[in-house]
Every structure is written in structure tokens, then in C-alpha cells.
Specification:
With 114 residues, the protein is α+β, with helices and mostly antiparallel strands. It is 53% helix and 17% strand.
């Protein structure tokens, strides 16, 4: 069984942002910030570098391009392979969180574990 390395948090959030509809770069930036409660704020250069890498890996694809005010706006979508990779990461995180919560409960620590 091939074990995938964990996704970095920004990558996880970019893929999560694309689980709904295709989004352009600025829309992805807004979604990542919202999903993280403001804890992760990506710069445009970081985002587009990540999108290029994710596209090379087959996890995202360009859905369409359109010109807006003379500038090209590219919309990205999550591929089926990207959705599968995200699902694998969700399961890994859930398993780790459950193990941590069980250990904390054994210590008698309940706050935030409901």
C-alpha cells in the first residue's frame, strides 16, 4: 500500500476550497482565508505556484478562462484524483484527531472534545 505524505495545510485548504464550484484565484484566496478562520492568508504568488504544482500532479485542472477587464481570469476545479487525495487526507486527519482525543480523555481532559 502506497502511503501518501501529509498535505501541507495551505494545500489542504486550496483543495477544500475547490470541492464546490470552480473558482478563480481571488475566489480561492478568499475561501482559504474563510475556511481557516483567517489563520491562513495566502499571497497570490504562493497560490499560483501551488495551483501549478497541483495541476502538474493532476489534483486540479483549469475549468475555463475568461477575459475580465482586459485580464485573463482562470477558473480551477478539483479533479477526481484531487478529490480522492483530499478524502485520503481527511481520513488521516480524522484518525489522528481521534487518537489524540482518546488519549486526552484518558487523562481526564474533556474541554473541546465533545
Amino acid at each position: 500500500m502506497l502511503v501518501m505524505p501529509p498535505l501541507q495545510e495551505p494545500t489542504f485548504l486550496v483543495l477544500t476550497a475547490l470541492t464546490g464550484e470552480p473558482l478563480h484565484g481571488y475566489g480561492i484566496l478568499q475561501q482559504v482565508t474563510a475556511l481557516s478562520g483567517g489563520a491562513v492568508v495566502l499571497g497570490a504568488g504562493t497560490l499560483y505556484g501551488a495551483l501549478d504544482r497541483l495541476a502538474e500532479q493532476g489534483l486540479v485542472a483549469v475549468e475555463r478562462e475568461e477575459a475580465v477587464d482586459g485580464r485573463l481570469r482562470r477558473y480551477y476545479r478539483l479533479t477526481d484524483e484531487g478529490a480522492a487525495r483530499l478524502a485520503t487526507e481527511v481520513e488521516r486527519l480524522r484518525r489522528n484527531a481521534n487518537a489524540a482525543a482518546a488519549g486526552l480523555r484518558r487523562r481526564g481532559f474533556q474541554a473541546g472534545l465533545e
